[in-house]
């Protein structure tokens, strides 16, 4: 676990370090949630606000480390170990970004949440898209439809397409950063929903193609 998740561990430890450094300077109540218009609408005690994100990162790290042990297709993880490690680190980077943005906002820095969050989401999607074609069949990570889980050929085709779609979704998500107001959130959700629906439909069509080859 330690070797395969080294970067994610370092990022998680760093999250705790910056929380400890920020605690003396945080107000008693801190913002932890923003609405679609980018306005803070959820608050908590500063200790919860400072340490809940690192705790969530710790939980994610443990979860990602444990998944291969419980997967019936656990043998396949050795075939995409590097990609799995990068996905793990990318998720840790994303949550660390959110944590830094939250702390900076509550420390009084002029942080534009409506700008940084869509860019972070877009960057995460682009990283996932680049490594998605390298993910091999498993029950926990990747595009898991009834058809990808039944056929490795369908899995591979779906993930090659999914990689391109995720990169496109990431780029479009970044563009929403420059659209202000509630429409920004709507556009972001629409991009993600329609992108995933397209992948699912194509996965079904790939299965139909494979059936015709077998018949």
TrEMBL record:
<feature type="transmembrane region" description="Helical">
    <location>
        <begin position="87"/>
        <end position="107"/>
    </location>
</feature>
<dbReference type="InterPro" id="IPR025962">
    <property type="entry name" value="SdpI/YhfL"/>
</dbReference>
<feature type="domain" description="DUF1648">
    <location>
        <begin position="11"/>
        <end position="58"/>
    </location>
</feature>
<protein>
    <submittedName>
        <fullName>SdpI family protein</fullName>
    </submittedName>
</protein>
<dbReference type="Pfam" id="PF07853">
    <property type="entry name" value="DUF1648"/>
</dbReference>
<dbReference type="Pfam" id="PF13630">
    <property type="entry name" value="SdpI"/>
</dbReference>
<feature type="transmembrane region" description="Helical">
    <location>
        <begin position="161"/>
        <end position="179"/>
    </location>
</feature>
<keyword id="KW-0812">Transmembrane</keyword>
<feature type="transmembrane region" description="Helical">
    <location>
        <begin position="185"/>
        <end position="206"/>
    </location>
</feature>
<dbReference type="InterPro" id="IPR012867">
    <property type="entry name" value="DUF1648"/>
</dbReference>
<feature type="transmembrane region" description="Helical">
    <location>
        <begin position="113"/>
        <end position="131"/>
    </location>
</feature>
<keyword id="KW-0472">Membrane</keyword>
<feature type="transmembrane region" description="Helical">
    <location>
        <begin position="47"/>
        <end position="67"/>
    </location>
</feature>
<keyword id="KW-1133">Transmembrane helix</keyword>
<dbReference type="InterPro" id="IPR026272">
    <property type="entry name" value="SdpI"/>
</dbReference>
<feature type="transmembrane region" description="Helical">
    <location>
        <begin position="7"/>
        <end position="27"/>
    </location>
</feature>
<dbReference type="GO" id="GO:0009636">
    <property type="term" value="P:response to toxic substance"/>
</dbReference>
């Amino acid at each position: 676990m330690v070797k395969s998740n080294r970067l994610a561990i370092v990022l998680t430890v760093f999250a705790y370090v910056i929380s400890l450094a920020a605690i003396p300077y945080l107000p008693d109540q801190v913002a932890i949630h923003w609405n679609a218009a980018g306005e803070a609408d959820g608050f908590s005690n500063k200790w919860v606000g400072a340490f809940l994100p690192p705790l969530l990162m710790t939980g994610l790290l443990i979860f990602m480390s444990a998944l291969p042990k419980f997967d019936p297709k656990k043998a396949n993880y050795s075939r995409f170990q590097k990609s799995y490690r990068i996905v793990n680190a990318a998720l840790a980077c994303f949550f660390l970004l959110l944590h830094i943005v939250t702390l900076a906002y509550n420390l009084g820095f002029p942080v534009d949440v409506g700008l940084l969050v869509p860019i972070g989401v877009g960057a995460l999607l682009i990283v996932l898209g680049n490594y998605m074609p390298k993910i091999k069949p498993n029950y926990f990570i990747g595009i898991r439809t009834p058809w990808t889980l039944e056929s490795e050929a369908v899995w591979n085709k779906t993930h090659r397409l999914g990689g391109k779609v995720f990169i496109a979704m990431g780029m479009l998500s970044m563009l929403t950063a420059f659209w202000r107001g509630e429409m920004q959130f709507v556009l972001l959700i629409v991009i993600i929903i329609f992108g995933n629906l397209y992948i699912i439909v194509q996965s079904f069509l790939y299965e139909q193609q494979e059936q015709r080859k077998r018949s």
